[in-house]
Design brief:
heterodimer; A: alpha/beta; 7-stranded mixed β-sheet; globular; B: alpha/beta; 6-stranded parallel β-sheet; 14 helices
Chain lengths: ~325, ~375
């Protein structure tokens, strides 16, 4: 066991999987000698060489096309989008091409591509760096979308993502990169894609969250323990496909639900979870579902970021509302 | 007044001078450039003509099938036979083809069966069920996307150490404006990836003329910004198209990196069979001008002169191809019915709960 930050856990997963499988390639902007702007690929260039850890020209669409062609040629490409706000430049490659190619070929061709990218608010980035765009990805059939909330899951999920025969968009919340450490086994292990995790057990209310919001939900849950409110926190870990079984089982147990996402309220992952719960478990609900989100504006100017982002206080308020209903 | 730092007029004319059009046969089939005559045997010359005639018949019959409602999406190819078939003629079976949607003739020559080509047109997944030895992906719909994908494919070939194996891809004059076209060439140049890029400049996107795509005098010169060779060729001249293609393939296969080839050609008919009327945007003079430059006329003249071709040979080939098309269309009619449950299965190698639940739901309906 080592005490690792989430970014170190991700680097370790890449390193070990590249050593295990020579078909795995890492490429993107500044991922080589520099090790990526967040150092996620630190040391890989020296260890595996330029052919396998490669600085591309600065063009996201080209990076996506490269991943497509390399996958057709039997490689397992891991492409990095330097910040996920830049994904609009490569939407066709990811959503229009890579995600559809298996379907297009009648199931006869796998596209084992991993799209790695940092995202998420609260770290004072310039515009177009912090947006939560997982909803756009989750709405695209053919992709799996993974968002770890801690170092242990990050290593296991990344290992699964690289080994997965389907394209996986792997989103890394920047605020989680170095904010805390976890015990992470040195040997390789996998955390399954498409399985949610009960991050904290409880009996009065279910809070469903993913990514950094799991941390805020856990903070709120801890606070509320003192007021004798027992909060169960479900960490989705994968936002496409969503593990409804785990969510529904929890809601059936607690009878109350709060959905939390950092993304804006309109048409996103949380809405899908709420809609499925309403179909599968509405008779178990003893109160209307609360939905904690950021407001429906463009991702805000840096100085108001913390006003805009959902927090433990917002989650606490929502929990109290459903518990007191 | 001080002298200007740079002479812009001289700069622009030096660019233009760097991309002359390569030609071997003039419009009547007379050899105008013996020096670069490709090394093709008589049998190979005849085979190339056979493929071009075959493609013309396929076009004619496809238009007829489309009128009868027996095809789905179809992009006519008449006029582009030299550009399409003579370029493909320079590549080998092991090379990878990333076609645009008008490049179905090359795809068939590369190994796609005619019934499958018709099924692709009709919107049947069986049309994309490729045999393993067909090194191609289905026609690209997003204009330009095939350039970056072909680049990635070629980077993969190079990394895998494949020898004597390259990638080739096609777009049009409209496609040349896409950012992906530049990104594909630029990456390929940077990685010295073995790929040959074609811009088939047929004069029009759907209706937008070539002049409205770019201030560049040639589209071949777009290669210069990526640091790779750019060639402009008479796309109605099969020997010139073959000669420049052969050189480009050899160059790429030898590890020198990519080449861009602009073929100056013409689409004699509409953009597609989905209601396009070219007389809305094209003058009669343009049709007349290009029909005189029909690649079949000049190659027929050239081969007849050499005693390698005759009307009888051509007639026989036309009849044979018509029959082949007829049989293929019939065979395509026999394709199995598609099921939603199978498409759900095609989405992922390992599906999630949503897909598994939906398979169950659709199977229940399908088994009713």
């Amino acid at each position: 066991m080592a005490n690792l930050t989430m970014i170190q856990a991700i680097t370790e997963a890449l390193d070990q999987e590249m050593a295990r499988d020579e078909k795995v390639l890492v490429f993107g902007e500044d991922v080589g000698k520099n090790g990526g702007v967040f150092r996620a690929t630190q040391g890989l260039y020296d260890k595996f060489g330029e052919e396998r850890v490669n600085d591309t020209p600065l063009a996201e669409s080209g990076i996506g096309g490269m991943a497509f062609g390399l996958a057709v040629q039997g490689f397992r490409p891991i492409m990095e989008i330097q910040f996920f706000g830049f994904v609009f430049e490569v939407m066709d490659s990811i959503v229009g091409q890579i995600a559809r190619q298996r379907y297009r070929m009648g199931g006869n061709l796998n596209m084992p591509v991993v799209v790695r990218s940092p995202f998420g608010g609260g770290v004072h980035t310039p515009e177009m760096h912090a947006d939560s765009l997982e909803g756009l990805m989750a709405q695209s059939p053919g992709l799996k979308v993974v968002i770890p909330s801690n170092p242990y899951d990050a290593k296991g999920l990344m290992t699964s993502a690289i080994r997965d025969e389907d394209p996986v968009v792997f989103l890394e919340h920047m605020k989680l990169y170095r904010s805390f450490r976890d015990e992470v086994p040195e040997e390789q292990y996998t955390v399954p894609i498409g399985k949610a995790n009960v991050a904290k057990e409880g009996s009065d209310v279910t809070v469903v969250a993913y990514g950094y919001m799991v941390r805020e939900a856990l903070k709120a849950a801890e606070q509320l323990e003192k007021d004798n409110v027992s909060v169960e926190v479900i960490d989705l870990r994968t936002v496409s496909p969503i593990d409804y079984e785990t969510v529904v089982a929890s809601v059936e147990k607690t009878g109350r639900m709060v959905m939390v996402q950092e993304a804006q309220r309109q048409a996103g992952v949380g809405n899908t979870v709420i809609s499925e719960v309403s179909q599968r478990a509405i008779l178990s609900l003893e109160a209307p579902v609360e939905f904690v989100t950021s407001p429906d504006t463009v991702y805000p100017f840096g100085q108001v970021e913390n006003l805009w982002l959902p927090s433990a206080a917002d989650i606490t308020e929502a929990i109290n509302k459903v518990v007191e209903f | 007044m001080a002298k200007q730092p740079v002479d812009y007029e001289a700069l622009l004319s030096s660019i233009e001078a760097s991309f002359p059009m390569v030609q071997i046969l003039d419009k009547d089939g007379k050899v105008v450039n013996e020096d670069i005559m490709p090394d093709l045997s008589d049998d190979e010359l005849v085979e190339l003509m056979r493929r071009m005639v075959w493609s013309r018949v396929l076009h004619d019959r496809s238009m007829a099938l489309a009128r009868q409602g027996r095809l789905g999406f179809y992009a006519p190819t008449m006029g582009q036979e030299a550009s399409q078939l003579a370029s493909h003629f320079a590549f080998k079976k092991q090379d990878w083809l990333y076609p645009g949607y008008r490049d179905v003739p090359q795809l068939i020559q590369h190994g796609l069966s005619l019934p499958k080509a018709f099924l692709w047109s009709r919107g049947n997944v069986e049309g994309n069920n490729y045999p393993e030895d067909l090194h191609a992906i289905p026609p690209q719909i997003i204009i330009g996307a095939q350039y970056i994908q072909a680049m990635g494919n070629a980077v993969g070939q190079k990394l895998a150490g494949k020898e004597d194996e390259v990638t080739f891809t096609y777009t049009g004059d409209g496609g040349s404006s896409q950012g992906d076209v530049y990104e594909g060439m630029n990456f390929a140049g940077r990685y010295k990836a073995p790929v040959v890029f074609y811009i088939q400049n047929n004069g029009y996107a759907i209706s937008t003329p070539r002049e409205k795509q770019s201030a560049a005098n040639t589209l071949a010169q777009k290669a210069a910004a990526a640091g790779i060779p750019g060639i402009q060729v008479d796309g109605m001249d099969p020997l010139a198209v073959y000669a420049v293609s052969k050189q480009a393939r050899d160059w790429a296969a030898a590890g020198n990196g990519p080449v861009l080839i602009e073929t100056i050609t013409s689409r004699f008919g509409p953009h597609s069979t989905s209601g396009d009327d070219p007389t809305r945007y094209r003058e009669q003079e343009s049709f007349d001008y290009w029909e005189q430059r029909d690649p079949l006329i000049r190659f027929r003249n050239f081969l007849t002169e050499k005693g390698l071709w005759s009307d009888e040979v051509e007639e026989e080939l036309i009849e044979k191809t018509k029959e082949e098309v007829k049989q293929a269309a019939k065979e395509a009619d026999q394709a199995p019915k598609m099921k939603i449950s199978n498409f759900l299965r095609s989405m992922y190698n390992e599906p999630g709960q949503n897909i598994l639940e939906q398979i169950e739901k659709y199977e229940a309906k399908e088994n009713n």
